[in-house]
Amino acid sequence: MDVYEAVMSRRAVRGFTDEPVPRKVLERVLSAAARSPSGGNLQPWRTYVLSGPPLAELKKRTAERVAAEDRGDEREYPMYPPELSGPYRERRAEAAERRYAALGIPRDDPRARHRAVAANWDCFGAPAALFCYLDRRMGPAQWADVGMYLQTVMVLLRAEGLHSCTQMAWSVYRRTVAEVVSPPEGLILFCGMSIGHEDVGVPYARTERAPLAQTVTFLDD
């Protein structure tokens, strides 16, 4: 698989089989991803990879909180700006509508939408998950480094025939994640990432991207 194919075939997969992901594959991916750009070579990411009993325990503990209608932990960073304006608001709304429509969930069925969201904390059935932390003292530039690192991980997973889904939703139950992975003091959980083989029986809608002219300006004459 060449780089273009890996990038174009990457998407947020929300349905996985239980086929295990070999540790040696994950080690190969994460070793190569360490070459991601990093200003000053800080490499601000700290990654935890869970599978088997530790991941099952995390899913169990989180499911108990969800079942108890626990609304989660106080957010440590905003997922989106509080006043999201156009065109960003429209893009987000369209992506959500496409996803729920593919699942057959109507707008006026909040319970079904809640169940779809809750699937995040089962990692959509994935047998492996990654949790990415960074030092709380880091600034926007280092958060950008982490984004580039995660993108590299996802593209390399595609090269291995695997799929993924990044999930800032895990920050909602960050304390439960910390109970299982025991991160050192001073780290903040950025996101989780479900990893595995796609369950092709789960319907999905591929989101569109804005035309190049909306996001790129060429100045060449």
TrEMBL record:
<dbReference type="InterPro" id="IPR029479">
    <property type="entry name" value="Nitroreductase"/>
</dbReference>
<dbReference type="InterPro" id="IPR050627">
    <property type="entry name" value="Nitroreductase/BluB"/>
</dbReference>
<keyword id="KW-0285">Flavoprotein</keyword>
<feature type="compositionally biased region" description="Basic and acidic residues">
    <location>
        <begin position="64"/>
        <end position="77"/>
    </location>
</feature>
<dbReference type="Pfam" id="PF00881">
    <property type="entry name" value="Nitroreductase"/>
</dbReference>
<dbReference type="InterPro" id="IPR000415">
    <property type="entry name" value="Nitroreductase-like"/>
</dbReference>
<protein>
    <submittedName>
        <fullName>Nitroreductase</fullName>
    </submittedName>
</protein>
<keyword id="KW-0560">Oxidoreductase</keyword>
<keyword id="KW-0288">FMN</keyword>
<feature type="region of interest" description="Disordered">
    <location>
        <begin position="64"/>
        <end position="84"/>
    </location>
</feature>
<feature type="domain" description="Nitroreductase">
    <location>
        <begin position="7"/>
        <end position="197"/>
    </location>
</feature>
